[in-house]
Amino acid sequence: MKSVRVNNFDLIRLVAALQVLVYHALTHFNLNSIYQEKIRAAISYFPGVPIFFTISGFLIYKSIERNSHDLKRYFKNRLIRIFPALFVCLIFTIALLLLSNELTFSDFFSGSFWLWIAAQLSIFQFYKMPSLATWGVGHPNGSLWSISVELQYYFFLPLLFLSVFKWRRTRLAQNLTFLFLGLLSLIYASYQKTIILESEMAGNIMGVILFNYLYFFCIGILIYINFDIISKFLKNKGLLWLVLFVAYMLIFRNWLGLFDNIYEVSTYGVLGATLLALATISLTYTAPSVSNKILRGNDISYGMYIFHMPIFNYFINQQKEISWEKLIFICAIVICVAYLSWRFIEKKMLQFKL
């Protein structure tokens, strides 16, 4: 019998996925409501993708540290978690495109179609088939850019362990390494925002290179490396860290207007990202049995994340202006599809993890 993990990672991931779901719904659908922008602005305080990156930084570093001697196990476990559901999501997206008459059976014989398929099943999920730009918001599944970043991170860590940490892996060496990498990441992200490229593809590639977001992962990694020291300040103090983060955002973002969001490459943006990361990990270890009581071992966050935009695009293609009732109905469809993905694909595939 598998041991039950006593933490709230699944619940935190679910909240992050819900944030992305609702934010995209309020961004891409027109509800003609004065509350639409207010709700969207409020939930933008807690961006889901940086939360995902922080958790990956923490957990995947833990995984590679334990399995650096067995990279086959490490890669198998990572790929099993990502690709089976992603493959089904691709088939699901193609079905919706066919239903919308955006894709025809003749497209199956075109080179651009198979290039798109290859991109979706590798690490280039940001690539879109040009002829599909008229469907929905212009990308069949634009949210998958972060999967590309995540996969790069999965491959980057083993290289680090086989090179930098092969001979020396003290706490000091690890801390200095990831502080340095985080700083390089911030420099690259800052530089990347200043250049203008004529090629859209080149711009897309530069925008999803791991170093554009590595500092989010590094924050999670640094928390993990030093967790035995700082855990006493984090465990069962999630509400305190959450209040500190909200207070920081209200004061420095809203009242003083010193930065726009925690994606911003600035001192205030990075401090905000760090506080959000600390709040995330703290909440994970605050009342740690809550996740198991609520979710009972079900983890639908990944399914919600990868399936929501194809479903949104299908309905946006029909009617962008909708009511709150229809929006709730569409979001309910996403949750149902995510549960089916978990129940019949992800959960079954996880049985093959080593």
The value of Rg in angstroms is 21 Å
The stretches of 5 or more residues where confidence is low (pLDDT under 50) are none
Number of helices: 15
How many distinct folded domains? 1
Along the chain, the helix and strand elements come as HHHHHHHHHHHHHHH
Approximate helicity band: 55-70%
Determine the strand fraction and express it as a percent band.
under 5%
How would you state the average pLDDT, rounded? Answer: 93
The biggest beta sheet reads: none
- Separation, N- and C-terminal Cα atoms: 15 Å
Structural class of the secondary structure composition? mainly alpha
Number of strands: 0
Shape: globular
Task: Please name the defining characteristics of this protein.
354 residues, mainly alpha
Overview of the molecule:
- The protein is globular and about 60 Å long.
- The chain contains 15 helices and no strands.
- The chain has 354 residues and is an all-alpha fold.
- 69% of the residues lie in helices and 0% in strands.
- The longest helix is centred in the first third of the chain and has 29 residues, at 71-99.
